[in-house]
Amino acid sequence: MTYQAYLDNIRTKTGKTPDDFRVLAAERGLTTYRDLMAWLKADYGLGHGHANLIAQLITTANEAKKSADEKIDARFSGNKAHWRMAYDAIIAAASQFGPDFKVMPTSSYISLVRGGKKFAIVDPATADRLDIGIKLKGVDAAGRLTVAGSWNNMVTHRVRIAHPEEIDAQLLAWLRQAYDAV
User: What is the pTM of this model?
Assistant: First the structure.
């Protein structure tokens, strides 16, 4: 689901825009993420994902907006910097899938998108591991292609990369399959 689709769903459910929620939160003196999440879930019946988006928009409203490149750089900073070359290799390969391939970074992970629809995510989870989430509905998990489970509900499968050489033809085939299915 795209960012705009999330916002549209929230507006359909509540009749409110992010700006409306900002005003209401300010009137109630709600400033912390935790308090905002509780309020949005209790008073508006928003699920975790929708409440999270609004809470993030409210708590980060006064922060300078980061460019896509800045967001990517931030994900690969510090002890995760050594994963940048592996990420760049994934992106170089995926960009060959078609002209509608895009990278859309968030503060939590980097989405790989085709025509506005997410088919995979890349997350430099730790200094020791790069996680790849792939949307492959109807595909059985096997070997290193595991069920995503509660790790991220935006994808169906997860591949944990411990060494850059694990970014291989098999991983790229799974990404291509997900791209084609979107």
Answer: 0.69
